Amino acid sequence: MKAFAYDAAHGVADFALTLRDLPDPVPGPNDLLVAVKAFALNPVDTKIRKTRSSSADAPVILGWDAAGVVEAVGADVSGFKPGDAVYYAGDVGRAGSYATLQAVNHRIVAHKPASLDFADAAALPLTALTAHEAMLERGITYTADSRVLIIGGAGGVGSLAIQLLKALTPATVIATASRPETIAWSKDMGADHVIGRNVAAELETLGVGGLHAIFITTNTGDYWDAVPGLLRPFGHLMVIDEPATMDMKPFKQKALTVHWEYMFAKAMFGFHPEEQGAMLAKLGGLVDAGKIRTTRTRTHPATVDALRAGHEALEAGTAIGKIVMSWD
């Protein structure tokens, strides 16, 4: 197979991914062997590139968002057959999707939405799973009185968080964005209100207080101290990044709950991984019904130069929606 791979962890200035001929992956009994047609880039790709080096027997292949066609199925696989079009986010502990072939556990895979091509489908899995697990799998009940703040409305995760909350709950959704293009994008995703970075003051101007939940998708440390004052008693904070400090004492008086989301946890620990396949199947239904739209904003032929530019945009924080690479 062809794959973009590297050997030693490195920064984006020393971008070292090269297109290589590597042995085809051998699927296990629970695996699908997928011919990858398109894969999307995510911030996690850049983080792993900077921290993970190759093992003794294999270089590192990044990528945890893909859509493609099943070529073979393992002995214990059910629900899939060769020729099926599928999409998935993969397992961070295994070789990724920057390759023409990938072996992936069938329990975290779903059939591709029929209304989307491979590039549009590849943009959705990781961010949709992250948003759904953070906002909708934590036992939180949303009502018409619920006011939810999404920090980073134009990012990949924020874009899906807005859409899923609007599609599946009656909550009022407020998103942050600071540039004209990100403000427009957040509104297009369905946000009821879009505010800038001076969150407390702008919420006050809107007349919004006592937030039911806040989902911080980026730069959590910049907002942490403000959160207890923004949430109502027994409110919820969801985070996905890794702030340097997390002082929890101010959260006690209002009995606030903090949920730390990590989309790969189910696959890593074998903790109900089939829930991810089921969620992607549900997402496909929402897409085909016109209730969720793809967040792909750019598609490029899969080349080293395109990958480098994509990683640079992710690290600079300038990407809107999702960047997708296509093998076709």
From TrEMBL:
Q: Which UniProt keywords apply?
A: Metal-binding, NADP, Oxidoreductase, Zinc
Q: Which InterPro entries does this entry report, sorted A to Z? A: ADH-like_C (IPR013149), ADH-like_N (IPR013154), ADH_Zn_typ-1 (IPR014182), ER (IPR020843), GroES-like_sf (IPR011032), NAD(P)-bd_dom_sf (IPR036291), Zinc-ADH_QOR/CCCR (IPR051603)
Q: Which GO terms describe its molecular function?
A: oxidoreductase activity; zinc ion binding
- Source domain of life is Bacteria
- Pfam families for this protein: ADH_N, ADH_zinc_N
Span of domain Enoyl reductase (ER): 11-325
Question: What protein name does the entry list?
Answer: Zinc-type alcohol dehydrogenase-like protein
Family the entry assigns? Belongs to the zinc-containing alcohol dehydrogenase family. Quinone oxidoreductase subfamily.
Q: What CDD domains does UniProt report for this protein, alphabetically?
A: AL_MDR
